[in-house]
């Protein structure tokens, strides 16, 4: 065990080739935090005894209580390796691992996204019994799209041995399945820059172990052990320890077949030499009284020495003690991380294209690619971490190039900065302090060289959630992160005393800063103060944070969670809709059409990266894939809402005079219309509006914006009303794992909640089935509790927003469910329960 | 017929017209009452029996309906305005104005019993009674009776416009006498007033049948008003106290419709928690707490949302929405300084009545409007302005960092000289601020420029000599709402 020494960490921070920045990612409850404990203890921060119990990386009280990680936490760990076989590019035998432990629950996925952005490698943890889940896939996909290299840890092997009493061969099969399922995902990301990232035990980028018991191993370790024993080259043995390599004891030969010529079953190399002895050890320790001699012999063989005290321990504890001594978890993990994950120097060379928004040949891009400590400072702030001092934040992120110092003058490029408007959201300020994040503690730094993750003090006022910090005058910002979770569940809050409204808003702003997936909105039309989050649990945590922390001392009243709807149309407008301007001198003739799902998705996908209309690609897709008329594609006037949403305004007129003048006014009207639809002021989705004809007054004073905007909005509303308007409700993709024998209860419950079962897949090697279903979010409130009570707590569910679905019923027809929802939404927003009739918007000639 | 006369106070109006020797009378009615306009005119003509007097009915006002439209009346050279319906009583017009409130029927007995159940007879703190214009006709009688049981109840008066110069002259003598009285009985002033009212009420009752009745009433009010000279005047009300800070120590009571705009102005300004509301039009009379009423909370939440938005706005339009800009110069100056101090840009726009269409002309350049003028209807206005529209106090709350919100919005916001001087001082100091601040300022200026650059339409193109010479063509003909050659597309 190396001793924790800050000086050594600080020293190592200047050697990028000996740094590894990694995130631990996995499905919830697969043992990330527990596993991290072992690594923290190895670095000398907590005692070995406590590892596996303490959950050091869960720094919040509620995290410890619930045993669930909510916020990702960073820590820097210092290790020394043997001098003999160091990685090629390393500089000395000491290494610094900057590690981020991330939450596994889907509701907190945005934390994972933020963690991966600043990491070069990912330790993927999978429970060997339950296997890879949907969240495992999600986080792995995120990692790969960020060009973060994965290594795999197959966790909870003890469960397979003790709980399920699996035979070595069965355990092997289980491992193979897990590895295959991970490789399926990896192989879909062929990336020439990342190189070969397919994982396999013989490559030693897979580890097996049990975080709770504090042990893990890679095949490399066993191969080394046997190499010494048998005096054979390690590589040769390594190959035999995995795959279809069987030991034929009669012929003293390795063969490729399961049975020898006589038909005797042969033992697989992995089973005989790796997992078999471990199973054997488990058995012996469990009945240690009976097998004292055999146990002693085995312990001798593996070189584990026990003190007399330890010998007296209960078998359960004794097992942990032995395993921790035999195969300490941290050793295998550290080996895997240091040898198989890239250093910043290596990783930044290929990551820069995915990160930097500017030209790849400019000074900043070059500095990032080379991880140049003398280049301009380029730091990406991926999240804001609340400080102990109320209301202030550390800006946490990674320095990609240059050296940042306390007191240095830097330029901050916020989320809304773009090179087009170089004055917007750009600030110059001084960095008060640079600090190293060590779990729940911080260590002050004087300076920080590129390749490290640090926190900055004193820049939080200028950043909303993320941003770029640079010293280069003409630096472009880092690309924005794309989050997989969308905030679709919302609650409205208000203070009990109206005087506290300003404090509430302040609190909401802080909450928004601290959590990248929370949206705090103020609807000035209805006077609602809204917190939108990924799910019920997420909102519960947010509300708790608000009450206990950001708005301490204020009584807050919160509404029940509600979902946001969308509005859409399902067919072409039944008539050309006409609206006149207030002065009667101008007319607009429009029709609404539904947009194809594919186009909606394309718009949303492209928009995550950049503004759509500058990409000819999209326009080409429209003509080639959806056979749109080229003439019209060129005349797309606007996307909306917020200039980027999945709705289109197209001019299909010919030869109208002065038409250009009203383009911006029509676009403004379109933004307003798509932001608040006619049914219940919810955003519009998937609507194409075609302008059929326009009549304008010859005198420009009579066709100003004040005349055109209201006219445009009215005509759009009318066209929505005539095109079979429908509500859209958000749908969760819900994955439930449940023992087969009570899966019927789950089906019943899903039925009640309007859920649609997509698939039921049995988990091999267990009695569990995985039921995937679509579940309307509006029905999902309280689903968790219902599921628990229906299955006596044996079912486990994860829900993540998947898509919008059209509610078939007519919302304008009394008595339908859609009508009820529409009215509820309208009343909540302080509107009349029923929208205006068509005549209100549609003018007659 | 008699009922109609009573409802629209025909006799009172005739009286007023004759007294002012007016020949061009303007009748201003809100849209709701517009249907009665010709009937009113007929009745007035009949009663006046004077062909020389001509009537003008204002069908579309250039102000809000609660304000007196002097602009439109000046166009037809009107010399007297009769304003019907709810009024914000904020007029400063020079010509004679008569406010006719359409009375609602109230049951005095029920109101008194509602008072008794709410307050019992035990002495609580001082109470001040506000009432809507609709109950003006019956308030005196009601108050007389209430005051017997509740001596701690004081009333407010309507601050009606003083028009009849003659009247004022007559009262000058009486006033002197009264002033003497006042000096003698300074401490018992309030009681005195009430006694007087009692006496006057009795007189009033006795003379009920007399034609002079209305005139008397006016006189009484004038007299009282003179007496209340030192007292606070706000939202068309004369308050029975002199110090505004004392107001919140009283229990404030509103008698009238619970949706009356004046009630919201009062409650926003003085704090909703101080108000109890009694709506005489409801079936079951019961006091309600203003702060508990849903619309009130919603309004406050909405207004504060706008204040929050104002903090982020860059270009602010100061809209002068009154017809008497002289008085508002001070407030314009204050707002300009305030905006400049916050490193934002301002623009002053003068328009009579603030309408969505008019403001629409500026939406491209301005993020927010602050309106100086009749605030009463603005706060409750539901129409879409495309940009937040604030009252001066709200902007002050947003941009003045020294202020802390106490849950009220002062609709009677008026900056004094100290406030302006203070801002000027601050502005001077900020010139010496560090470089960064200046850069930010520059950024904003640049932003304004860049905004106008993004416009797709940059004015008419002058294409001199580029267009071919052609013959004159016949243009559109017919009404704008439907030209003759227009065919229905459907």
TrEMBL record, chain A:
Main location: cytoplasm
One GO MF term: translation elongation factor activity
Keywords: Cytoplasm, Elongation factor, GTP-binding, Nucleotide-binding, Protein biosynthesis
Keyword Glycosyltransferase: no
Pfam families noted in UniProt: EFG_C, EFG_III, EFG_IV, GTP_EFTU, GTP_EFTU_D2
Localization: Cytoplasm
UniProt domain Tr-type G: residue ranges: 17-234
InterPro entries in the cross-refs: EFG_II, EFG_III/V, EFG_V-like, EFTu-like_2, G_TR_CS, P-loop_NTPase, Ribosomal_Su5_D2-typ_SF, Ribsml_uS5_D2-typ_fold_subgr
Domain of life: Eukaryota
Keyword Membrane included in the entry's annotation: no
NCBIfam families: small_GTP
Entry protein name: Eukaryotic translation elongation factor 2a
TrEMBL record, chain B:
Protein's UniProt keywords contain Kinase: no
UniProt entry keywords in alphabetical sequence: Iron, Iron-sulfur, Metal-binding
Region of interest called Disordered, as start-end residue ranges on this chain: 168-227
Molecular function per GO: 2-(3-amino-3-carboxypropyl)histidine synthase activity; iron-sulfur cluster binding; metal ion binding
Superkingdom per UniProt: Eukaryota
Pfam families per record: Diphthamide_syn
Cofactors: [4Fe-4S] cluster
Keyword Iron-sulfur: yes
GO biological process, one term: protein histidyl modification to diphthamide
Pathway linked to the protein: Protein modification; peptidyl-diphthamide biosynthesis
Compositionally biased spans, kind Acidic residues: 178-189
Bias type Basic and acidic residues, positions: 168-177, 190-227
Family that this chain belongs to: Belongs to the DPH1/DPH2 family. DPH2 subfamily.
Stated name of the protein: 2-(3-amino-3-carboxypropyl)histidine synthase subunit
Originating species: Anaeramoeba flamelloides
Source organism phylogeny: Eukaryota, Metamonada, Anaeramoebidae, Anaeramoeba
């Amino acid at each position: 065990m190396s001793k924790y020494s800050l000086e050594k960490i600080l020293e190592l921070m200047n050697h990028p080739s000996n740094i590894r920045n990694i995130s631990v990612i996995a499905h919830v409850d697969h043992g990330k935090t527990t596993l991290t404990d072992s690594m923290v203890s190895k670095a000398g921060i907590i005692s070995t005894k406590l590892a596996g119990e303490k959950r050091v990386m869960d720094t919040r009280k509620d995290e410890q209580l619930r045993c669930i990680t909510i916020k990702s936490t960073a820590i820097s760990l210092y290790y020394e390796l043997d001098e003999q076989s160091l990685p090629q590019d390393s500089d000395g035998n000491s290494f610094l691992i900057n590690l981020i432990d991330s939450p596994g629950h889907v509701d907190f996925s945005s934390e994972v996204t933020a963690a991966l952005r600043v990491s070069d490698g990912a330790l993927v943890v999978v429970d060997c019994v339950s296997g890879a889940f949907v969240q495992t896939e999600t986080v792995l996909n995120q990692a790969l799209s960020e060009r973060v290299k994965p290594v795999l840890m197959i966790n909870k092997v003890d469960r397979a041995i003790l709980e399920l009493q699996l035979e070595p061969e069965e355990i092997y099969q289980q491992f193979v399945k897990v590895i295959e399922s991970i490789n399926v995902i990896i192989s879909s990301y062929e990336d020439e820059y990342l190189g070969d990232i397919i994982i396999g035990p013989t490559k030693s980028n897979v580890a097996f172990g049990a975080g709770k018991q504090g042990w893990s191993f890679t095949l490399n370790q066993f191969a080394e052990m046997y190499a010494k024993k048998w005096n054979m080259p390690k590589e040769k043995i390594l190959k035999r320890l995995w795959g279809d390599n069987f030991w034929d004891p009669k012929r003293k030969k390795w063969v490729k077949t399961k049975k020898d010529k006589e038909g005797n079953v042969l033992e697989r190399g992995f089973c005989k030499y790796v997992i078999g002895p471990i199973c054997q050890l488990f058995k012996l320790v469990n009945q240690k009284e009976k097998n004292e001699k055999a146990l002693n012999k085995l312990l001798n063989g593996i070189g584990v020495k026990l003190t007399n005290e330890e010998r007296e321990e209960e078998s359960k504890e004794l097992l942990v003690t032995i395993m921790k001594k035999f195969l300490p978890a941290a050793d295998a993990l550290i080996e895997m991380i240091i040898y198989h994950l890239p250093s910043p120097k290596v990783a930044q060379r290929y990551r820069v294209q995915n990160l930097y928004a500017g030209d790849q040949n400019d000074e900043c891009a070059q500095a990032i690619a080379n991880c140049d400590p003398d280049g301009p400072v380029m730091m990406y702030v991926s999240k804001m971490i609340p400080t102990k001092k109320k209301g202030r934040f550390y800006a946490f992120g990674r320095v990609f190039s240059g050296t940042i110092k306390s007191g240095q003058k830097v330029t901050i490029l916020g989320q809304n900065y773009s090179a087009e408007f170089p004055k917007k959201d750009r600030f110059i300020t001084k960095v008060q302090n640079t600090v190293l994040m060590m779990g729940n503690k911080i260590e002050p730094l004087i300076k920080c060289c590129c390749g490290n993750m640090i926190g900055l003090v004193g820049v939080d006022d200028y950043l909303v959630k993320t941003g770029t910090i640079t010293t280069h005058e003409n630096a472009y910002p880092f690309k924005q992160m794309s989050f997989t979770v969308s905030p679709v569940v919302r609650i409205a809050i208000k203070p009990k005393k109206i005087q506290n409204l300003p404090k509430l808003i302040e609190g909401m702003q802080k909450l928004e800063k601290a959590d990248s997936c929370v949206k705090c909105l103020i609807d000035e039309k209805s006077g609602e103060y809204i917190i939108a989050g990924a799910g019920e649990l997420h909102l519960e945590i947010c509300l708790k944070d608000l009450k206990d922390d950001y708005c301490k001392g204020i009584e807050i009243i919160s509404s029940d969670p509600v979902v946001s709807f969308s509005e859409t149309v399902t067919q072409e407008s039944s008539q050309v809709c006409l609206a006149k301007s207030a002065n009667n001198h101008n007319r607009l003739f429009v029709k609404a059409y539904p947009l194809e799902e594919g186009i909606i998705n394309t718009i949303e996908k492209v928009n995550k990266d950049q503004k759509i209309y500058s990409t000819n690609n999209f326009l080409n897709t429209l003509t080639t894939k959806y056979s749109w008329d080229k003439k019209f594609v060129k005349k797309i006037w606007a996307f909306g809402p917020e200039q980027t949403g999945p709705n289109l305004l197209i001019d299909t007129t010919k030869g109208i005079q002065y038409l250009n003048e009203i383009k911006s006014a029509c676009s403004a009207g379109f933004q307003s219309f798509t932001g608040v639809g006619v049914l219940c002021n919810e955003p519009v989705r998937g609507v194409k509006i075609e302008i059929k004809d326009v009549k304008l007054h010859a005198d420009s004073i009579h066709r100003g914006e004040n005349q055109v905007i209201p006219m445009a909005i009215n005509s759009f509303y009318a066209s929505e009303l005539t095109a079979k308007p429908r509500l859209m409700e958000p749908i969760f993709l819900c994955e439930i794992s449940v023992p087969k024998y009570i899966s019927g209860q789950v089906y019943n419950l899903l039925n009640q909640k309007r859920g649609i079962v997509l698939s039921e897949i049995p988990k091999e090697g267990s009695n569990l089935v995985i039921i995937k279903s679509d579940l309307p979010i509006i029905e999902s409130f309280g689903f968790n509790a219902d599921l628990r009570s229906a299955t006596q707590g044996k079912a486990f569910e994860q829900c993540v927003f998947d898509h919008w679905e059209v509610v078939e019923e007519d919302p304008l027809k009394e008595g339908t469910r859609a009508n009820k929802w529409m009215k509820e939404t309208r009343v909540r927003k302080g509107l009349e329960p029923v929208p205006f009739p068509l005549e209100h918007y549609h003018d007659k000639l | 017929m008699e009922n109609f006369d009573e409802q629209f106070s025909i006799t009172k109006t005739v009286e007023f017209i004759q007294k002012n020797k007016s020949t061009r009378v303007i009748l201003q009615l809100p849209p709701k009452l517009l249907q009665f306009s010709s009937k009113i005119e007929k009745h007035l003509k009949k009663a006046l029996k004077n062909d020389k007097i001509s009537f003008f009915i204002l069908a579309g006002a250039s102000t809000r309906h609660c304000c007196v439209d002097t602009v439109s009346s000046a166009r037809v050279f009107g010399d007297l305005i009769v304003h019907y319906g709810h009024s914000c009583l904020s007029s400063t017009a020079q010509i004679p104005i008569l406010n006719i409130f359409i009375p609602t029927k109230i049951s005095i007995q029920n109101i008194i019993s509602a008072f008794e159940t709410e307050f019992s007879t035990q002495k609580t703190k001082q109470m001040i009674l506000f009432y809507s214009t609709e109950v003006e006709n019956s308030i005196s009688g009601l108050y007389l009776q209430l005051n017997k049981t509740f001596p701690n109840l004081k009333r407010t008066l309507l601050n009606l416009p003083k028009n009849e110069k003659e009247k004022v002259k007559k009262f000058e003598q009486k006033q002197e006498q009264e002033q003497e009285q006042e000096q003698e009985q300074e401490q018992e002033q309030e009681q005195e007033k009430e006694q007087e009212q009692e006496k006057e009420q009795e007189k009033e009752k006795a003379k009920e049948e007399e034609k002079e009745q209305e005139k008397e009433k006016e006189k009484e009010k004038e007299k009282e008003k003179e007496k209340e000279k030192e007292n606070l005047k706000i939202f068309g009300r004369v308050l029975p106290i002199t110090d505004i800070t004392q107001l919140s120590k009283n229990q404030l009571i509103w008698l009238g419709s619970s949706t009356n705009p004046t009630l919201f102005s009062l409650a926003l300004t003085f704090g909703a928690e101080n108000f109890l509301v009694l709506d005489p039009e409801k079936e079951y009379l019961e006091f309600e707490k203003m702060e508990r009423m849903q619309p009130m909370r919603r309004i406050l939440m909405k207004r504060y949302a706008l204040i929050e938005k104002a903090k982020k706005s860059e270009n602010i339009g100061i809209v002068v929405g009154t017809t008497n800009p002289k008085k508002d110069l001070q407030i314009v100056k204050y707002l300009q300084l305030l905006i400049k101090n916050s490193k934002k840009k301002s623009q002053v726009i003068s328009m009579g009545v603030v309408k969505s269409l008019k403001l629409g002309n500026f939406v491209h350049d301005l993020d927010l409007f602050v309106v100086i003028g009749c605030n009463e209807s603005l706060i409750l206005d539901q129409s879409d302005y495309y940009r937040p529209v604030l009252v001066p106090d709200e902007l002050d709350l947003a941009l003045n960092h020294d202020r802390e919100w106490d849950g009220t919005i002062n609709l009677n916001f008026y900056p004094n000289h100290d406030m302006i001087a203070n801002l000027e001082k601050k502005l001077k100091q900020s010139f010496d601020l560090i470089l960064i601040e200046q850069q930010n300022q520059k950024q904003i200026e640049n932003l304004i420029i860049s905004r106008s650059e993004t416009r797709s339409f940059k004015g008419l193109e002058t294409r001199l000599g580029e267009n071919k010479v052609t013959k004159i063509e016949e243009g559109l003909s017919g009404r704008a709402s439907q030209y003759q050659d227009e065919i229905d597309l459907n």
